[in-house]
Amino acid sequence: MLHNLNSTTEQVLAQAPKSVRKFIEDRIDADTAMNAGVGALHDQVMERVSSIENIKREINHLLRSTPRADESRVDEQRKKLELKQEELKRYRASQAAANDKWSASQRLTDRLISWLREQNLSNLKVVEPKLKKGDTIESVRAEIERLDLDAEHVRRAPRNRTALIREISASVDAIAEQGAPGIDPRIRDRDPTDLSNLLSMQLNGDSFIGDGGTAFFAWLMKDEIKARLVELVPADGPDVLTDEQRLSSLTQIGVERLRLEYVEERLIRRAEAEDRVVVRREEASACAILQVEVS
User: Is the predicted pLDDT of residue 69 greater than 70, yes or no?
Assistant: First the structure.
């Protein structure tokens, strides 16, 4: 089959592993066929729209043609109209579903090609993930969902007291630094600290210039502010994580999640070889779908 490839995509696929090239070409062919199917359904929809208009015109003609229209013929046309309208609903629903399916498939194909364009293709290595006994697409996807929940739990876990105090101190210091006065010994005719500017706040159009001394007072009472804020920091609970622990946990979850995505894709391809239709998750990793890793 002639694949509908533009020159840029052709150049990218020419450098990709053979299995990747075939996979993308097959997807492009499938997307093209789906698009043709959407077009055919559109034609069917328009054909029924035209038929409905013709039937309506025939009914109007019958009603105007004689002082007393032939009710049997009018009823016959009305029944035909109802049937065609029901057909139109079904075809429009089919067209919408087919268009959604084609759009999703096209987005995925485009994402995979975009990912390939960003890679050093000579570093791609084809992988063959090992399956465990009892692995199914459903069980693997359930495990991926569980890992996503675990990752969300880790991301939401509170930071430890030490890290919070460090961040609070840094935040106060940053504000205080903006309000720190300077003394210029060369000034003779005005305040050498320029406090009037530090304490001012003026309206300029729709915005204000200056902070009315907020940063200055943060500088002036920096230690007191830090002490009061530290008093508000709760003690470490059982679910507290340090930044290092959080990063380590998310990394481990990410590694296992990616392994499962490779397994998921292999199971999908096995199902497709048996003529079963499986919709890929749009958020699945491109490298897993292509069954390659970057070495």
Answer: no
